[in-house]
Description:
The chain has helices spanning 13-19, 61-73, 85-93, 110-119, 135-141, 164-172, 187-190, 225-238, 244-254, 257-276, 295-301, 317-326, 356-362, 378-392, and strands spanning 78-82, 101-105, 126-130, 146-152, 178-182, 200-204, 218-222, 281-285, 308-313, 331-332, 342-344, 368-372. It has 14 helices and 12 strands. The strands form 2 sheets. The chain has a 7-stranded mixed sheet with strand order 1-7-6-5-4-2-3, sandwiched between helices. A 5-stranded mixed sheet has the order 8-9-12-11-10, covered by helices on one side. Helix 1 packs antiparallel against helix 2 (61-73), helix 2 packs parallel to helix 9 (244-254) and helix 12 crosses helix 14. The model is unreliable at 1-5 (pLDDT under 50). The protein starts with 12 loop residues before the first helix and ends with a helix. Strand 4 (146-152), helix 6 and strand 5 (178-182) form a beta-alpha-beta unit. By secondary structure, the chain is of the alpha/beta class. It folds into 2 domains: 13-255, 3-Layer(aba) Sandwich (Aspartate Aminotransferase, domain 2), CATH 3.40.640; 256-392, Aspartate Aminotransferase, domain 1 (Alpha-Beta Complex), CATH 3.90.1150. Ligand P1T is lined by residues 84-86, 109, 111-112, 152, 156, 182, 184, 204, 206, 216, 218, 334-336, 350.
Amino acid sequence: MAQNGFLKQKAGFATIAIHAGQEPEKWKSAAVVPPIVMSTTFKQPAPAEHTGFEYGRSGNPSRNTLEECLAALEDAKYALTFSSGLGSTTTILGLLNAGDHIVSSDDVYGGTNRLFRAVATKHGIDVSFTDFTDLKKVSNSIKENTKLVWLETPTNPLLKVVDIAAVVDIVKSRGDIIVVVDNTFLTSYLQRPLDFGADMVVYSLTKYMNGHSDVIMGAVVLNNTALEEKLRFLQNAMGAVPSPFDSYLVNRSLKTLALRMERHKTSSLVIAKWLQQHPKVTEVLHPGLPNHPQYEVAKKQMTGHSGVFSFTHSGGLQESRRFLSALKVFTLAESLGGYESLAELPSVMTHASVPALQREELGITDSLIRLSVGLEDTIDLIDDLEQAFKAAF
Ligand code: P1T
């Protein structure tokens, strides 16, 4: 685990989440709960000398505390935080030059697709999207100028599971290409992509890691010192940094991450199985179900699944609209990973910015509903889904 005065030996996930980076001795007050340091600037003993902090964009004690804890959670050397998940991605794009090429998994969060397609390309970066569950396609997409391979697993919103180690093997045999895994859906509690050879792990901390739907933030976790130095420079130079207050909130939320993920895991599988037997449901896309096409890959690299999954039904857009509007315990809203259950229609919401043809090819239809199962009583969630089906059909 990351160097930490409080924890001298390897500890379990929950212990690390609660103690890593949190040693009271690092504060003059010996505060057990890390303080929120709001100051944007720090007194220097002499010009161009400082005692660890100078200006709040380049570093802040509350942010550093969170970053230390995030790194320790996956036994990594470094973690950097950003103003949003997409802020992390934008900063990583800052590592590339015009003329470079990105290969991305085809099914990614709509905002990531939009950033690659509509912004990166404007700066001369070429982007290809391909199905990462087909390793031949990954290999065929790599070009001379490929510098970055980007994947989500499980993917948003189709829950495809990508074999991280197999992709890393292919990519690394083709050159010095950075492999990034967006681990937002699973968190460091359920999957550790660095252990499978990925260079960087990216999070929308907005989701499970914070888990209370009250912070927008992102992070990159990594071991490679040269890459960390470049990213640390870009974090300050590009300026997409989080606030001290938000850093405090996410740090606090990490203390219950293990407990929350266990509940999300249990509840979502019960609901997925209930949906499987529902007469109006045509398919349930959940990596914890044995009939999931990549179930074996999931078992190999994940220690469980989270609360987010999708299903399709036998109706169309109208039934989806009626179903979603009828929900009472689930809230119809974008996002995922909070304590409250959410439901949404990716085709017109989170993935509306994906070009219609790409959506159609992927299977992001108007009958595909994505759920984020929260921490409410499972029976209340099932009753809610049941009454919404009755209202919709
Ligand atoms: O919203 P932000 O913190 O910028 O994170 C972007 C992001 C990155 N990666 C994944 C896998 C994501 O799901 C997201 C954000 N997703 C949603 C808002 C959503 O409803 O899918």
